[in-house]
Structures are given as structure tokens and as C-alpha cells.
Amino acid sequence: MMKIYLRELVNLTYNGKANKLLIGGNQLHYNQFIRRYDGCAPIAATNILLYLSHVNKLANSALSWPLNRANVDLLAERIYEQMTPFQLYRCFKKSDIWQFKLFGFQLTIPPSLGVFSAVIFKHKMKRLAKTFKIQLKQRQFKPALWADQLVDWQKFIAEQLAAGRPIALLNTFARVEIDFFQPFSDQVRQQSLRHHWVVIVGIEAVKDDFIISALSWGGVVKISLNQLWRANRNKWLFKSKMIAYQI
Question: pTM of the prediction?
């Protein structure tokens, strides 16, 4: 039975408040509301760079700092400044989000579109690699627009993880249900995932499905690959994106 996880994931664990164990960055730790709203791509970038630098033992300023909440949050703020998600208007709190009714329908205009494409994410990652003076390689999964197969998704994820490459996943318009696990605890929260970046760190065969493990919000989310693939089948140009990284 297939079970593949990135090695040495312990390199991303650290103690947060009240000795709560966290894994990777958490966009809810950003100081500003708008950053907590649209900061998933910078957090994904933070997790990828932290993992690769610690596993490869790079002696590189901010990326080689000891892992604790203060250092991870500081690095995430720095990376956010370079990621610069696409913001539509200034928004300081939840009540600032534009909402109005039109023909009886409640409409909401989001304050930010975030980092809404793989092209932009890859470009930003190249800039970050230059900033931190590392040689970063990117491999994007490119499924067929109409006839992509589940086995292609599974094969790409398994091969990249086996080679030690974390995978950035952007789930765009395909809504999928996930289980969010607080790190190293039995606390689970079920929610939907849409318009969100995560970092895939594991895949496991479970009965007739493959379950993806990914980093987000300082914990781990579990995603059904079957469900993700089915939700993407008719999305054409708006399919979810996957990009694998290595140094």
C-alpha cells in the first residue's frame, strides 16, 4: 500500500503560544487583517523555503534561523512583502469588506484576489530565490485540459514527494471538503477548501482513494485526491495547479 511523505518534516515543527506545537507558518499570525485574509501564498512559500533550507542544511540568514514562532512569523512577513498579493481596495477589518444587494442577491467584492495564478507564484518564487541566494528549481504539473486522468495526478505527487520535493497546490474554483488537523493532536475541523494555497507533504492510499496531506494554518489538512480530481475535471483553464520545488 502506497504511503509517501517528505522526510524530516520535524524540521518544520516548533512551539507556539502555550507550548502549542505548530508545523510551518500560519497566515492567521499576520498582524494585519488583509494579510490574514490573502496570505496563503506567502505562507506556502515560507513553508517551502524553510523546509528545503533546513533539510539541505543551508547556512543562509533568515532561512536558517532556529524555528520558533517569532522567527517564522517574521520570515512570513518578509516573504509577504515580496509576494505582494493582488489587492483591490484597502481593508483593515472584516466589516470593511464591500457588500451590497443587487436584484435581491447579496454580493460581496473581496478586498484581494491573492496570488491567483501559478504563473505569478512561480515568478514570485524566482524573486525570493534571488533574495535568499538559493538555486531553486520548479516543476509544474500540466494535465490535459479535457482528458487528464486521476493516475496522472497521483503519479506526479508521488514522484515529486519521493524525490524530496514539496509541492505548492493552488485550489482555484474547485470546492473540496477537507479535514484540518491541529498539529500532533486529535483535534479535527471539517471545512471547505477553495481559492487557497497549501503545500503537499504526503500522499497515502486509503481504500479506493488517495489522501493528500498538506500544510496550512500551522497544521495539516487532509484532502481526498479523488474528490479534488473530480472537482477539477470540467474546469478547463481554471484547474488546480501544482508546482514541485527543489534546491
Answer: 0.91
